[in-house]
Amino acid sequence: MSKLFERLKSIKNLDLIICFVAIAVIVAILFFDGFSIETNGTSFSAYVNQMENNVEKALLSIDGVKSVDLVINFENGVEQVYAYETTTKTVGDTTTVNTEIVTSGGAPVLIKELAPKVSSVAVVIKGNNGAVLEYKARQLLSTLLQIDADKISVVVYN
């Protein structure tokens, strides 16, 4: 036990390290205890269905559109971002950095969920005035889904 105290005494800036770790623990306890950003708990397929329904509803509001068939492709699924705590420990000339996921009640603390990014869209529209509908649909989809117009395929028929 005395060897341990001797090693601790030899660590440079030990009081600063202890203070930093104590503050990090206090902040983690106060901020994260029982705290996680609520998510709606929807699965990826439910998210896709909701997105397609919302976009279809917007397309159907364009004058002259009678019906819409829509497919949205995504680059990836939902990404979850968790809280991390990083501690630094210096012993002599060696510095050790340790990063761990913060937990609350045994479960990791979820900070946020990032929605999947849309990669492309294909739309088949039944309606009148094909060229105008195609232009309006492409503009609407580009704005709503934040993708370039060349990633959107629109087919209009009567």
How would you characterize this protein structure?
With 158 residues, this protein is of the alpha+beta class. The protein has 2 domains: 1-33 and 79-114, no CATH class; 38-77 and 116-158, ANL, C-terminal domain (GMP Synthetase, Chain A, domain 3), CATH 3.30.300. The protein is built from 4 helices and 9 strands; from the N terminus they run H-H-H-E-E-E-E-E-E-E-E-H-E. The strands form 4 sheets. The chain has a 3-stranded mixed sheet with strand order 1-8-9, with helices on one face. A two-stranded antiparallel ribbon has the order 2-7. Mean pLDDT is 80; it is low at 30-40.
Radius of gyration: 27 Å
The low-confidence parts are 30-40
Tell me what the CATH architecture of the largest domain is. Answer: 2-Layer Sandwich
Secondary structure class reads alpha+beta
Measured between the Cα atoms of the first and last residue, the distance is 86 Å
Domain count: the total is 2
- Beta-strand proportion: 25-35%
| CATH fold-level label of the largest domain | GMP Synthetase, Chain A, domain 3
Average pLDDT, to the nearest integer? 80
CATH superfamily of the largest domain: ANL, C-terminal domain
State the shape.
Answer: rod-shaped
Number of strands: 9
**Name of the CATH first level of the largest domain:** Alpha Beta
Helix count equals 4
The helix/strand series, from N terminus to C terminus, equals HHHEEEEEEEEHE
